[in-house]
Amino acid sequence: MIYLDNSATTKPYPEVIQTVQEVMERYFANPSALHAKGEEARRLLEEARRAASRILHVEADEVIFTSSATESNNLAIKGAAFQYAHRGKHLVTTTVEHPSVEQPLAQLVDFGFEVTRIPVDRNGVIRVEDLRRALRDDTILVSVIWVNNETGSVQPLAEIGRLLKERRKVIFHVDAVQGFGKLPLDPKACGIDMLSLSAHKFHGPRGAGLLYLRRGLALSPLLAGGGQEGGARSGTENLPGIVGMVQAMRLTEQQRTEKQGYLERLRRILLDGIRDIPEAMLNSPPDGAPHILNVSFHGIKPEVLIHALEEKGVYVSTLSACSARRQKLSRVLLAMGMDEERAGSSIRFSLTYSNTAEEMKEAVRILQETVKQLREWTEVKR
Amino acid sequence: MRKRIMIRFGELALKGKNRGDFERQLVQNIKDALSDLRETEIQKAYGRLYVLVPTDLSEEAADRLKCIFGISSFSFVEEAKPDLADIQQTALKLVMRKLERGKPGSQPESGAPEGQTLLTYKVETRRVDKSFPLTSMEVSRKVGGFLKAHAPLKVDLYEPDLPIHIEIRQEGAFLFSDAIPAAGGLPVGSSGKVLLMLSGGIDSPVAGWLTMKRGVQLEAVHFHSYPFTSEQSRKKVEDLVQILTRYGGKIRLHVVPFTEIQTEIRKNCPESLGITIMRRMMLRIAEKLAVKYRALAIATGESLGQVASQTLESMLTINQVTRLPVLRPVIAYDKQEIIALAKQIGTYDISILPYEDCCTIFTPKSPKTRPRPEMAERAEQALDVDVLVQRAVAQVESVWFYPGQNKKEFQYF
After folding, report:
1. Which residue of B has its CA nearest to A44?
2. Touching check for A252 and chain B: CB below 8 Å?
3. Does residue A94 belong to the interface with chain B, where contact is any CB pair within 8 Å?
4. Which ranges carry the Aminotransferase class V domain (chain A) (predicted)?
């Protein structure tokens, strides 16, 4: 099996699987309980928080554990909007956000908020100048995806952070789900106020996410209750998931620093092989993240190609996996100015550190063969 | 690549005949503190110590050296061959590095471009190796002149921004610019052993630290009244001891089961004298442990007038039960001063965790602030003091703590 759908989900590290099981067995007590077992679980929880904060270069009390990136994004966006509505009701984002940012923003329109979406260029990147012009006196939030989940386009976070630094009222949220562990990250240096992560995108367990929330900011909680996570997110903590996530954060960051340039090399092999295929159109920008490659093959329906590749053991995806089951054009590719045919026929290859050069070569061979075959068949029918 | 750190010891140099012992103790303590850092080496020279440590570990080593009593200050030194040209080049390298990092104190801009005031410097030379062909003054002048010709600097002999020190020794020439202050005091182990009564509050760890500062090796005793005090409060004391090992090397913690004594006092003695009698019982047990483990004194975190049991009358009455010296290093400190020290030492955040300790659980509504010894003795007649003390001492649990064990409770991260 050659698994190239790592931006949809990754296979958990074996160590993480073992950790999750071990924590379930040993530290099952409620971290809020007063007795020794509860106290032990609380210590583990706080140790996980400290470890996560060290990896992100933030403070421990700035880390909120959630159930997913979807929750982190919802909490960040709706939580900040409701908390700071008295300051203004204008929110700014881009046209290429993940649905878990796009949809909560759309919901907020029903609550009287106004949303401005900054367009992107052919590389999928916004112009900071456009953002500057979109800001108003009543703008309270800017939410930007760091690495685009479909194309790997990278937004200029540091530049945006510099622009927003002068505007203290504006909170800067970043959906960093696809970028973490693949590119270097320093939220404070980029002036980021809130940042979302998801464990299963970096070989952690499902059901665990994280939100960095800068000190001094408050969020109106989506889940009210027992006051866990500093009141920002009630609910008994998912300790096995959290511990597994933080361990995976460490392992992933370790791989990122030890395997500098590795993903770029793998991507290069894929890219060179795809360039040899007639009428293959590269949708990812040349300077995008090193692990995502988005391509359209003229005249080939993506779902047909996906199933044909799957038969030969190669796993890839189309659109973002969340919306793949619905027949839809890619919003992101349309926003980048691509035509409907291209936006409706994109295939995404997404890599991780456990992929190998041999796998890439094999995948290229299978891909070339499969595209050729599919085109022959469809031509015969015509 | 290794970095050389020059270590100075202030007070030790005055110690006359005992100096050899003090130095040996300090070397041992430094060795212990750095033992887990690879390729680390200690070199002795007259009146100085050098630590050689791999470059990537030098920050970690410096952090640890700052905690070791007996070191007054230390500097990262640049090494040169004992020849003028090499000393000049090395001095220039040192200066350029300092300039890159920005001015000490003043504007952050580096390189001092046109129009901006130049950094001032001064070269000072010590020639320990008298066979070196130039005198100290000559070396200073020649290196100073060289620096001025090659770097944007200006001489200031009185308050230089960049003092450049050169020491010419048989083993080479050492150059350094600033001295990093360390903990001062005397090397732990050079003044005997003291038993610290450690409650888990803010004051007693500070008292322990101050005691160690004068060269004392600590053992600690904690009174544990399970279930009135929780496992957490015991864990907290263990964490405090762990922090103190950074300064004093290995420390043994004795945990005394105290529940029986506290309930006996509660049952049989007047409530208003409860704290006084409790403290007397603690001191009796501490004395027994001190004798057993060869400690020459007992240290406490008492500060005069802070609470009811810390009046002079109280101290007199409590002190009656022991003939050992009771050291009270924070006796004259205000709470704010103690807190500031606790933060500096690193015990504050643990000390303020809200777990009950044995001093807080049976606090009487109106404790006697001026108890007299006779009153306490009379009240204690209701207790079988000797038996209670013996039983408690027999059930003590003792655990060693070592520096760097750093309470890694969980191995996942």
Report:
1. B410
2. no
3. no
4. 2-361
Place of tokens 């005394």: B256
Identify all chain A residues contacting B232, using CB atoms and an 8 Å cutoff. Answer: 36, 39
A36 neighbourhood in chain B, CB within 8 Å: 230-232
Among A158, A189, A218, A322, the active-site one is A322
A60-111 residue pLDDT tens: 999 999 999 999 999 999 999 999 999 999 999 999 999 999 999 999 999 9
Domain A2-8+259-380 CATH superfamily = Aspartate Aminotransferase, domain 1 (3.90.1150.10)
Q: How far is A64 from chain B (nearest CA, A)?
A: 17
Fold assignment, A14-255: Aspartate Aminotransferase; domain 2 (3.40.640)
Going residue by residue through chain B (413 aa), what tens digit of pLDDT does each one get?
889 999 998 776 666 777 888 889 999 999 988 988 888 999 988 778 999 999 888 888 999 999 999 999 999 999 998 889 999 999 999 998 888 765 444 444 444 444 456 788 999 999 988 889 999 999 999 999 999 999 888 888 888 888 999 999 887 899 998 889 999 999 999 989 999 999 989 999 999 999 999 999 999 999 998 888 887 888 899 999 999 999 999 999 999 999 999 999 999 999 889 999 999 999 999 999 999 999 999 999 999 887 766 889 999 999 999 999 999 999 999 999 999 999 999 999 889 887 766 666 667 777 888 889 999 999 999 999 999 999 999 999 999 998 876 656 788 88
Q: Where are the domains of chain A?
A: 2-8+259-380, 14-255
Strand arrangement, sheet containing B217-224: B326-327, B297-299, B193-197, B217-224, B251-257, B397-401
Q: What is the distance in angstroms between the Cα of B231 and the nearest Cα belonging to chain A?
A: 7
**What would the CATH number be for the domain defined by B2-181?**
3.30.2130.30
CB contact under 8 A, B413 and A47: yes
ipTM above 0.90, yes or no: no
Is the whole model's pTM more than 0.80, yes or no?
A: no
Residues in A touching B235 (Cβ below 8 Å) = 39
Contacts of A47 in chain B (CB under 8 A): 409-410, 413
Size of interface A-B (CB pairs under 8 A): 28
Domain ranges of chain B: 2-181, 193-412
Q: Does A26 touch chain B (CB under 8 A)?
A: no
Closest chain B residue to A246 measured between Cα atoms?
B413
In chain A, residues with a C-beta closer than 8 Å to the C-beta of B410 are 43-44, 47, 243
Q: Which CATH class is domain B193-412?
A: alpha beta
Q: Is A322 part of the annotated catalytic residue set?
A: yes
Is B232 in Cβ contact with A51 (below 8 Å)?
no
